[in-house]
Structure formats: C-alpha cells, structure tokens
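Worked example 3. Consider a protein that binds nicotinamide-adenine-dinucleotide.
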Amino acid sequence: MTQAEASVSKTELETHIETELARLSNTFAAGVTRSVAWRKGQINGLIRFAKDNTDALIDAMASDLGRPPIEGWTADISSSIAGAEYVASRVGKWAKPRRRRLPVVTQPGSAKVIPEPLGLSLVIAPWNYPVNLVLEPLVASFAAGNVVAVKPSEVSSATSAVIAKHLPKYVDERALAIFEGDADVSTALLAQRFDHIFFTGSTNVGRIVMRAAAEHLTPVVLELGGKSPVIVTKDADISVAANRIAWGKTFNAGQTCIAPDYVLVDESRRDELVDGITTAWQTFYGDRPAESPDFGRIINERHHRRLTGLLDELDDDTVIHSGDAGTRSGDAGADGLYLSPTIVIDPPRDSSLMTNEIFGPILPIISVHDVTESIQFVNERPKPLALYVFSESSKTVDQVLSQTSSGGACVNHTLLHFVPPDLPFGGVGASGMGRYHGKAGFDAFSNMKGVLSKPTVGEHNLVYPPYNDAKQKLLRKIL
Ligand code: NAD
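Given these inputs, the predicted complex is written out as structure tokens:
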C-alpha cells in the first residue's frame, strides 16, 4: 500500500467511525435507551447471544487460543451469562432515584440521587477472554442506559468475527456499533469524543487510552494487568495450595490478567510446594502436557518468543519443566505455540521474568524468611490486580490484606474472586482504576446526579445579604 493509499483508507476509516458514532449519538439523544424495559431487553439479548452461539464461540476460542471447551464455557460463556442475569434482575432497582436526607438549613424540601446514563460509551477489549471481556462491559453499559461502540481484539480474530457477525442481531442495532480491527482502529476511535471509555488490556496501552481520554475529559475505567503475587505462609495447607496455584497458573495457559504471576513462599515449605505444584500439573495434564486436550496454547508466535526469551535469560538449573521440555527459544513445540508448565526457582529479582507481567505458564517461586518479608516484597512493587494468600491463620491473612494494596484478593484459592456477580472487580494504581461487575458496573457507566428540590412556599431571607448579627447568631445555632 502506498502512502497515498494508506491515507485514503485512513480517511475512510475515520469517516466510517464518525458516521457510526453519529448514528449511536442520535439514538441516545432520541431517548430510546432510557427505559428500564429497553435496558433489560438488551441484557437479555446479550444472554441469548451467548446461549445461541455457545458452540461457535467455544470453537472460535479453541482456534484463537487452543482453549479447552470447559475453560471456554466456564470463563467466558457461563460467567458472562451469570453476570448478565444478575444485572438484569436488579437493574430496575438500581436505576430508581434514591432519596437522601436534608440538613435543617435546606428544609423544607427533598433530595435524591438520580442515576442517569452517560451517553456514548467505548469498550476496548483484549484477546485473552475475548467473549467475557466484551460482554460484561456491554452488560454494564446497557444497564446504565448507554449506547456503545465496541472494539474487540484483532489478536483473537476468530472470536471477534463471531461477535461482529452475530451479536448485533440480538440487541437494538441502533445502540451498538462493533469495530473490528487493530491498534489503528483503536487510535482512530480514541480521537473521537466519548462520554465514557472502558478499556481492558495492558498497562502501557492503558496509558495511551487515558492520555486520549484526557483530551476530552472523558472518564475512564482501566482494567489493566501486572504481576499478581501469591503469598504462601509457613502454616499454609501446602497440598491444597499447590493444586489451586497450579490450576490458576495454567488455566488458559497462564494468559489470565489475575493469574498468579509469582509465589513468595516461606523457605521451610518451598520444596514441598514445588513438588506439590509439579504433581498437580502431572495429574492435570499427564506426562506430556503438549498432548493433553486440557492445556491451552500461547496466543501467537510473538508472545511465545517473549516467554521463551524470559527463560533464556536464566540459569538452566533453576528451571523445572513439567512433563515434556523442548520449550526453549527456537523450539516452539510440535504445533508452534506450546509452552510447558514451568517453575523457576528463586530467579534474580532484576530478571525480565521478575520485572514484567509473565502472562504465560511460567511460575517463579521465591523463598522468603517470613510473611513480613513477603509483604515488603509486594509493597516495593507496583500495586497488583490480584493478591493471593494461603494461610491457615486468620490473623496472618488479616495482616497480609491490611498491610498490602491490590485491586482484589482471594484467600486460600486463586482466580475465583472474579466469579461472584456482585463482587466489584478492578485494579488499583498501575493495575487500573474503576470497578465493574454487578452494581459497580452500573455505577461506573452512570452519572449519579444529586438533585435537591424546594417548594416555593415559605420563602425567607435568613441566608441572603444583607448579613447582620441576628442572622449570624441564628445560623451559628442551627448549622
Ligand atoms: P493490549 O493492551 O495489547 O490490547 C488491548 C486492546 O487495545 C486491543 O483491542 C488492542 O487492539 C488495543 N490496542 C493495542 N495497542 C493499542 C494502541 N497503541 N492504542 C490503542 N489501542 C491499542 O492487551 P492484550 O495483549 O490484548 O491483553 C493482555 C493484557 O491485558 C495483559 O496485560 C492483561 O493483564 C490485561 N488484561 C487485564 C484484564 C483485567 O480485567 N484487568 C483482563 C484481561 C487482560
């Protein structure tokens, strides 16, 4: 493509985006999205879309990610349906104005909070849970009465195609526009003015999104990544911890925003934990995980090279491959994108493995002297999206939770805090801002308008100038 052709097609893209967004804005301005019945209709449409297209979506995720059907169903389909059903059953209540108390000085009168939709929202999604991370933000946006532009990830192109082809049939097409494509499409979208942007993806792109949003003072929810630690204390039930950490690390081949990134374990329990995790992986995937239908693949060659590159930097003696090895760079396994579940014992703290989000089935296990050292380790790094603590002592759990900061946390398990439909989900600091799921999502996409109403009877001049001593005395008494 010549430079001139590229600029023509860019203009076409911009024109297409502007036309589509104008269409959505007109729908919003016409007021069709306001009623609770319309909102429920859209959410129910999203549920029907997920149910009617389950097989196509699961096949698309298998093609994009080598995702086993059970993982496709649990993490993307059933979780989206459960979240949507919860919201549909409560949105009527959440959308109602809520009364507030009035202080004496403003009486008589009444006050209420009126949740109103923000208007035109933009949802940008990543590839790792390519159905859930489109549907759940859509549920929240429609629940709040907005119109939505959606940009699925080009990396999970098969899933993006199913969504773009079928989803519009299930909702009010006047209120939805789907833009398939890569970063150029996102960039062109972000140049436009939105009333709300909901972005899920990497911390670096999150910065780009926030910068673009600042131009228009658009509020954002940023659902980002990071290194989510696991703290395993001296008194933990190691065999249970090993199973649950092993599962959380290799679900979707470790390509989960809240996957355990690394483990900090009391040095007296380290070897037992390493054995336990290795045994768990052996039980899950057998001697040759490459041949297990239950173990996914790395999304593409770029990420595969990135992951094997992390291992190449390390001393061989510290790397334990579960089952078949053959995962060093240049050897991507039989189907090109396989990477065996791998433990790395006590990697250097300044290695790339310990300074970047791993996002793959590699698990560094780091020995610490005690829980205080684990807490310090976590606090010296950017605030993570999730934190996991395994301990039999509620006092130790409280100590970890109260002395660290993370977007969410899960005690004695991994990943599961994403599941309850009314548990707010999101990051803090470098792992993001804002929350969704259940009422938190409704609130994120709403303007909570505070309204005070006064009757016109009973007019008095107590707070009006001219001020005098009598007014001052009285006001000091009653305020
Ligand atoms: P990504 O940031 O590369 O891409 C996310 C989206 O942004 C995609 O739709 C992509 O097309 C778009 N994009 C890419 N570059 C862009 C640019 N320069 N300008 C504008 N838009 C751009 O992330 P990814 O690789 O798709 O997903 C993996 C990351 O997402 C990981 O860091 C992971 O932790 C994070 N993540 C977070 C959550 C969460 O809930 N917090 C969930 C899933 C994934």
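Take a moment to read the result before moving on. Residues 124-128, 133, 151, 153-155, 182-183, 186-187, 200-202, 205, 208, 223-225, 257, 357, 359, 385, 427, 432 surround nicotinamide-adenine-dinucleotide (CB under 6 Å). The first helix runs from residue 3 to 29.
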